[in-house]
Amino acid sequence: MGSDVVIAQHSSEGAVNDGHGAEVPISVFLITFNEAAQIERVLSSVAWADEVIVLDSGSTDGTTDICARMGAQLHHQEWLGYSAQKAAALARCSNTWCLNIDGDEIVSEALAAELRDWSYCDDISAVEIPINDSILGKTLHALSRKRRIVRFFRAAEVEYPSDRTVHENLRIRGNVVRAKNSLYHLGYDDPIIYFAKQVKYAKLRAEDKFRAGERGSLVKLCLVGPYSFIRTYILSRLLLSGRAGFVIAVAEATYAFCKEAHLIKLSRAETSAQ
């Protein structure tokens, strides 16, 4: 997040619509590519939204047919990278308040109601939402710390960074609050798919860091994996989540190790070319 972001401490409870004012229209947007396995459940979970924008990058598994049948506004865009693709989807939204979800994420009724409440607040710009990952059929324990991502926001007060291809954290102007209810993420339920994505993201993030001037370190390579595992499994209390927590902790360690290893590879290639 940008340096001007403040995590506000007030609650959404005081912002509940009293029934005398019109509901604030909300846009939901998502980028897709071959999400047929979950997309119907995903779209059903946001049927309450005033508009649902789907920006697809060439699915071949029937994703677009399902989206059209579910009544989403379907658009096509060749792949631009995670950040630019989401920015292109956001640009197609017509409402002030927008919710971004992935093609494998479910919005619960409780989260939808909470976001509706936040949309009546005039003094906030965005809402940070906890993500509850499902791993091997198990979601995380209530006391396990979940990753939090800003997904609900006023469109005019955010922007996606142009210098990142992955982990596209929004740049936000204004106050950010934290939601109590979680977004449920099903995309990591298969550990093979989960680890493959972590390796892919590690490579992309290392390339972002290299372009920004960072270089790899052998010392960091030796330490970053164990550190990431301990931070995730112990300090973030994922040990309470059983096998799901253990798999996530190992995946986080794998991501950290692969990112640093690829950064070293890029650094060595640069040195050899000089």
Counting DSSP E segments of at least 2 residues, the number of strands comes to: 12
Determine the CATH superfamily of the largest domain: Spore Coat Polysaccharide Biosynthesis Protein SpsA, Chain A
The number of helical elements comes to 7
Mean pLDDT: 91
Measured by DSSP, the beta-strand proportion falls in 15-25%
What is the annotated CATH architecture of the largest domain? Alpha-Beta Complex
CATH topology of the largest domain: Spore Coat Polysaccharide Biosynthesis Protein SpsA, Chain A
Structural domain count: 2
Label the structural class: alpha/beta
End-to-end separation: 35 Å
State Rg. Answer: 19 Å
Q: Write down the CATH class of the largest domain.
A: Alpha Beta
Q: Spans with pLDDT under 50 lasting ≥5 residues? A: 1-9
What does the model show?
The structure is a single chain. The protein is an alpha/beta fold and 274 residues long. It has two domains: 6-185, Spore Coat Polysaccharide Biosynthesis Protein SpsA, Chain A, CATH 3.90.550.10; 191-273, no CATH class. It is built from seven helices and twelve strands. The chain has helices spanning 39-45, 63-69, 82-90, 109-118, 191-211, 218-235, 242-273, and strands spanning 6-7, 26-32, 51-56, 73-76, 97-100, 105-107, 126-133, 147-154, 158-159, 171-172, 175-178, 183-185. The strands form two sheets. Strands 1, 2, 3, 4, 5, 6, 7, 8, 11 and 12 form a ten-stranded mixed sheet that branches. The chain has a two-stranded antiparallel ribbon with strand order 9-10. α5 (191-211) packs parallel to α7 and α6 runs antiparallel to α7 (242-273). The longest helix is centred in the C-terminal third of the chain and has 32 residues, at 242-273. The radius of gyration is 19 Å and the shape is globular. The chain starts with 5 loop residues before the first strand and ends with a helix. 36% of the residues are buried.
